[in-house]
Amino acid sequence: MPSIKSLKKEINNDIGDLIEEIYLWELSNPKGDLTKSEKLIEEAIQIFDDLMAKINSISGENLKGKFKALNEERKKLMETLMKKSAAL
């Protein structure tokens, strides 16, 4: 299990890379439906905020298990976002 700092960094990098990919798509497809891509960016930012809030609120016992579950949630959410991005 990665450290808290590493997990936050992974989330930041994953979301940042996705948003960058969407911006590149927008630049290469100026006639495309930009409302869909902007909504996807907003969704990615919301997911980022939610995951960071969850990380910061974790306390108590079984921290390792809680962070492992959060890491799995991150992977599932990123997979969903990537599928939506590919559908643009």
Write a brief structural summary.
This protein is an all-alpha fold and 88 residues long.
Number of helices: 3
Range of helix content: over 70%
Segments where pLDDT lies below 50 for 5+ residues?
Answer: none
User: Which structural class should the secondary elements be placed in?
Assistant: mainly alpha
Beginning-to-end CA distance, first to last residue: 33 Å
The main pleated sheet reads as: none
Q: How much β-strand is present in the residues?
A: under 5%
> What's the mean pLDDT score?
91
Query: How many beta strands in the DSSP annotation?
Result: 0
Gross morphology: elongated
Write the element-wise H/E pattern from the N-terminal end onward. HHH
| Radius of gyration of CA atoms, rounded to a whole number | 15 Å
Quaternary state of this entry equals: single chain
Query: What's the domain count?
Result: 1
Write the layout of secondary structure elements.
Layout: H1 4-28, H2 34-57, H3 63-86
Helix pairs in contact: 1-2, 1-3, 2-3
Describe the structure.
This protein has helices at residues 4-28, 34-57, 63-86. With 88 residues, it is mainly alpha-helical. It has one domain (4-86). Helix 1 (4-28) packs antiparallel against helix 2 (34-57), helix 1 (4-28) runs parallel beside helix 3 (63-86) and helix 2 packs antiparallel against helix 3 (63-86). The N and C termini lie far apart (33 Å). 10% of the residues are buried. The mean pLDDT is 91.
